[in-house]
Amino acid sequence: MRSIFSQASKPILVICVSVCALYFPGCNKTSIKGLNSDVGWTVADAQHVRLADSMDKVMVLDFYATWCEPCRESIPGLVALQKRYGPRGLQIVGLNVGGPEDVDMIPSFAKEFQIQYQLGIPDAELVDLMSDQRAIPQTLVIDRNGVILKRFVGYDESMGEELESAIQTSLAAAR
């Protein structure tokens, strides 16, 4: 039996499926359960924090750099969400992917934006969760079952409402 797709149309099909997985809600329900159980991030005191140890919470992983203007614009909203939903089981973690020269800027960045959530440097395997490692910020909402519910690439003002909605939905489902 012959395929309904010609050799020339197969790459187009792959691209269409990939776009669906990245941009349409519900199409990309990736689980983090397949990751190494030790994957996580390193915080300022050189302590390694494992993502697996936080799975009793709804997690928001925000991949950012201190020099990235859209990242800087997104921070006040993340700070507000952590204050509002932290007591209900939300944990936001800022993961700096700005390169080795950006690491020294993290303390002043945290002070400037009054960041109260944890900031760290992600393990390489955690960076692999980013859909495009050249595009920041990237923000992932992960439920208590380890499923990536929502993925945001970039930032604009409409993202705040979508992010809060995803957080609310996940927190409500966890009850």
Distance between the termini: 50 Å
Q: How many beta-strand elements?
A: 7
Looking at this structure, what is the CATH superfamily of the largest domain? Glutaredoxin
Enumerate how many helices there are, as a single number. 5
Secondary-structure element order, N to C: HEEEHEHEHEEH
Report the mean per-residue pLDDT as an integer. 82
- Percent helix, as a range, is 25-40%
pLDDT < 50 runs, ≥5 residues: 1-7, 9-28
Q: How many domain modules?
A: 2
Question: Features of this protein?
Answer:
single chain; 175 residues; alpha/beta; Glutaredoxin; seven-stranded mixed sheet; 5 helices; disordered N terminus
Explain the overall architecture.
This protein is α/β, with parallel strands linked by helices and 175 residues long. It folds into 2 domains: 1-28, no CATH class; 31-173, 3-Layer(aba) Sandwich (Glutaredoxin), CATH 3.40.30. It is built from 5 helices and 7 strands; from the N terminus they run αβββαβαβαββα. The chain has helices at residues 10-23, 69-85, 106-113, 124-127, 159-173, and strands at 40-42, 48-50, 58-64, 90-96, 118-122, 138-142, 148-153. The chain has a 7-stranded mixed beta sheet. Helix 2 packs parallel to helix 5. The longest helix is centred in the middle third of the chain and has 17 residues, at 69-85.
